[in-house]
Amino acid sequence: MAETVIELDLSSPWEPPEPPRAPLRFRLRTRWLAALTVLAVVAAGLTAAGAKPRTGPLYQIDDQVRTVMVTGDMLIVGRYQQALSGTRIEGRRLSDGKVLWNVPADLQQMYLTAGDRVLIMIRHSESDRGYTSTLTGLDLATGRQLWTRPRTGLTGTAGGLLVVEDMPDPGKIIEIVEGGELPDPTINHAGDPQPRHVLVLDERTGEPVWELTTPPGTLLDFTRDAQYPAGSVTGVEQLDPTGLVTHRDIRSGAVVATHQLDWSGTPAMFSTGYAWFVAPGAATTRALVYPDGERGGLVFALPGGRRLFRTDVTLYDGFYQCAKDLFCATTEHGIAAYDSSTGRSAWRLDGYTQVMATRGDRLVVGTYEQPDSMPGRLGIADARTGAVTVELTGWRLIDRAPADRILLWRAVDERTAILGELDPATGRIAVFGKAGDWYGPPECSTRGDILACVMVGEATVWHLPPRHPGR
Questions:
Q1: What per-residue confidence (pLDDT) applies to 25?
Q2: Strand intervals (E) in 80-117
Q3: Can you give the pTM of this predicted structure?
């Protein structure tokens, strides 16, 4: 199987090999025609692209950078402790990296995300009474604190709104008695069901727009317009013990649709596809329920609620829709695929343990790897047969890439890497950047046509290559 890579040597322009020498007059005429041809090709390329292609970084920030996040027209930078100040968060202009504001922050226990106009700081803390988190909203343009909300977990954003949930009482902790018998992992366990309180907040004020409280035994799932954790929340799905699925609009809380499943009981897990790969944002067509106290799960058709099949895949092995007509699961040796309407085995692929992305009838498959380990396997498989069509030897995925773009990196030597974008339909990789001081998997953030990565205290910002038809 072939690997097709469009690699750009970023150090010097490509030159064709020397042809056999010809008579002087013919050589001069040939060079003149060749020069005109090159100029015409370059002019046509620049006209089509609208600008000269960028292969180098936009800029770098080379002093004690811990994290970066691209959001709107801002670059949010978290810094390690400086000599005269503690750890801080900076708001920088995305186009050139100019610092617009900075605020102190404890980055050891803090994560960042962003809404439309608000930066959300999520501070996690633990004690002998359990785990909790506090949300704080900052104005993206100025860094000014707008509000804070204790004991609140963030589910996602939704166009000026924040979807959050009240944290359980920190006094409710699970105690495992030493020497006690552990639960059977092949049997579904609902645990100790608790009521849930979901709030949809105005991101500027932190005040609720609407709220939802569910009784014990009811499970929730949140739909998104892109594969989790990217994208905005679009709706909330509620499964009651009666088997009733209620879909609410995330902006108003209004009930949009209801579906009665051909089932009732206590669910241990329920999903309509928030973590699945197929058609993010499209209408939900399947529901997966793992009943408490049983082995395996049940797949239902939505709408209608008809039970399609039972799967023996355990709750902890993962069962998800990986392509239009397929569910996938991780096995001891690789990936198993099943027909999404009947549950019948479609194919098995050994040597790869997870589906990383889906594009039509092409699956990007790989193996789990520790951050400091050698590269695992990465390839493209045909969703119809499970056959690997392209081996992407040495390439590794860049995490948190946009849902519609697959970005990769590959080490050139111990401290240099090249960056590229994969077209799964053809297996071609368009290399768009070269990075120095690159010693392993980076922390990256992307939005639109901008990629920012941190490696060993240095942040680098690139323009992504122009999109091409079919990619």
A1: 41
A2: 88-93, 99-104, 110-114
A3: 0.82
